[in-house]
Write a structure and sequence with these properties.
The protein is of the alpha+beta class. It has one domain. The protein has four helices and six strands. The strands form two sheets. Strands 4-5-1-6 form a four-stranded antiparallel β-sheet. A two-stranded antiparallel ribbon has the order 2-3. Helix 1 runs antiparallel to helix 3. The chain is flat. It starts with a strand and ends with a helix.
């Protein structure tokens, strides 16, 4: 039987009172970013945690992941002291199929 539980992760950066540089570091570690070199001549992607973990992004700052893949994201949130609400949820069949990738 497939794992039908997931985690709903809602994070709030504005309410966390962290510096802008820490906010940027957090978002880059979480979502990755595009980097340019040689005055914009070359562009490449620096991958983040969400590039490696199958997830569903519902709206800004709200992510659904399977329960067994959530530890990296939760540890990153704790590392930066981000205010977050993390709840266990039951996944639908459609969600399970999206999170298999």
């Amino acid at each position: 039987m497939e794992n039908k539980t997931g985690k709903l992760i809602c994070y709030n950066i504005k309410a966390s009172n962290i510096s802008r540089s820490d906010t940027d570091r957090f978002l880059r570690e979480l979502a990755g970013h595009n980097d340019k070199s040689n005055h914009g001549k070359y562009t490449y992607r620096k991958r983040g945690i969400l590039d490696e973990i199958p997830h569903i992004k519902l709206v800004r700052s709200v992510i659904v992941v399977s329960s067994n893949k959530s530890t990296q994201i939760i540890n990153l949130i704790k590392k930066y002291g981000i205010n977050a609400y993390i709840r266990d949820i039951l996944l639908t069949e459609d969600d399970i199929n999206k999170l298999k990738k």
